[in-house]
Amino acid sequence: MSQPVASAPSETDRHAKSRASHVPTAMIGLRSLSASGGIETMARQIAPRLVSMGWPVTVFCRGRYNPSKEQWFGDSGRRVRLTNVPTIYTKHLETITYTFLALIHALFQPCRIVHIHALGPALLSFIPRFFGKKVIVTIHGLDYKRAKWGGLAKVALRIAETLAVKVPHRTVVVSRTLQTYLEMKYPKRIDFIPNGVDHATPAPLDGLKRFEVRSRGYVLFLSRIVPEKGLDLLIEAFRELETDLRLLIVGDAHYDRAYGEALRETAKGDSRILFTGPLFGEEKEEALSNAFLFVLPSYIEGMSIVLLEAMSHGQCPVVSDISENLEVIGSPGSDESVGVSFKSGDASDLRRILKDLIANPARVQEIGEKAREKARREFNWDRIANQYAELYESMIQ
């Protein structure tokens, strides 16, 4: 009788068994593992995987975003410790006060590695380095380019960029574009580890029926509603399209309420344009599963996780031609391209692209299938977590 064949160990399992040292790690710079946002999504995915590979992780949360005061996140064998720290909840003080108190807290814990996310928190990266911790900073984007920051804050974030490169033992970026920029500006090796995405399971239209939309009957925008995402451009382009498709705008404008109100004023009178507010969980999956196509008209990105999520759902991505977006979908017109781009800031070009795609649904579906396959092949969270584990290991050897 033939013996049963054991399943091959996963890449995660192989790495877990190869490591003898279990080094406690602190993650600082996000709001909480349950909050929405690109940094939070990334940490939510890699932290439990790192735990399963033998790297105990404590995530320092801002209390407002972990209101139940949960102390653990994840299942058995992948449990991440959560520690709430107080902060001052104002636009300019929230991040810096939270980061300072989290770092002080981390100094009195047995963690050997401090992993800081984003430029703002990196401003204080010298603290753990001074006290002998191994420090890694992940830069998710050049935050001083964002419209919400005034002059003084932009200066502080530019200083933070320099510190994020020069102070830590290792600096990581989420896009090749950022890597090239920083390596040309600073004489230091910058590591590239992309963002990732889970393999999506299609969700039938259910809860979203309250917005009177049908499957494949809407164009989808899903992101934070802030000026750098270019939503005003999309609304301008869509209003002049002759189509019975609807424009579903999913996101929260609490970061810039004046901008959100201006967008609603611009959309007034066009009943096809719907603002749903933020959607989470199953309803977010519904929105991504049933769109005709997905549009990301942003002026600034690091590597957009929601773009990867849309691709994993088989959506045809229509994106501005900034280098960070083209890095994900491929160069326009190439055989490897899995999306369509338009000239950044050009509403008429976006309108032309949308008009063409709406008239060619078979092309939209074909591009979406190619996007799904690329997301599955290249942006895998297990592989990304292993890259971070390898980086951690190199820091403590």
The name of the CATH architecture of the largest domain is 3-Layer(aba) Sandwich
| Structure annotation, total helices | 15
Please state how the strands of the largest beta sheet are arranged side by side: 3-4-2-1-5-6-7-8
Alpha-carbon distance between the two ends:
47 Å
Net shape: globular
Residue runs with pLDDT of under 50 for 5 or more positions: 1-9, 11-20
User: Structural class of the secondary structure composition?
Assistant: alpha/beta
Give helix % range: 40-55%
What is the count of structural domains? 2
What's the number of extended β-strand segments?
14
What's the gyration radius in Å? 22 Å
- SSE run: HEHEEEHEHHEHEHEEHEHEHEHEHEHHH
Could you explain the architecture of this structure?
The structure is a single chain. The chain is an alpha/beta fold. It is 41% helix and 15% strand. The radius of gyration is 22 Å and the shape is globular. The termini are far apart. The protein has two domains: 20-193, Rossmann fold (3-Layer(aba) Sandwich), CATH 3.40.50; 207-378, Rossmann fold (3-Layer(aba) Sandwich).
How do you describe this structure in short?
With 397 residues, the protein is of the alpha/beta class.
Strand and helix layout:
Layout: H1 11-18, E1 25-28, H2 38-52, E2 57-62, E3 72-73, E4 80-85, H3 94-107, E5 113-117, H4 119-122, H5 126-130, E6 134-139, H6 151-166, E7 170-173, H7 176-185, E8 191-192, E9 218-222, H8 231-239, E10 246-250, H9 257-267, E11 273-277, H10 281-290, E12 293-296, H11 305-312, E13 317-320, H12 323-329, E14 340-342, H13 347-358, H14 361-378, H15 381-396
Parallel strand pairs: 1-2, 1-5, 2-4, 5-6, 6-7, 7-8, 9-10, 9-12, 10-11, 12-13, 13-14
Antiparallel strand pairs: 3-4
Helix pairs in contact: 2-15, 8-13, 11-14
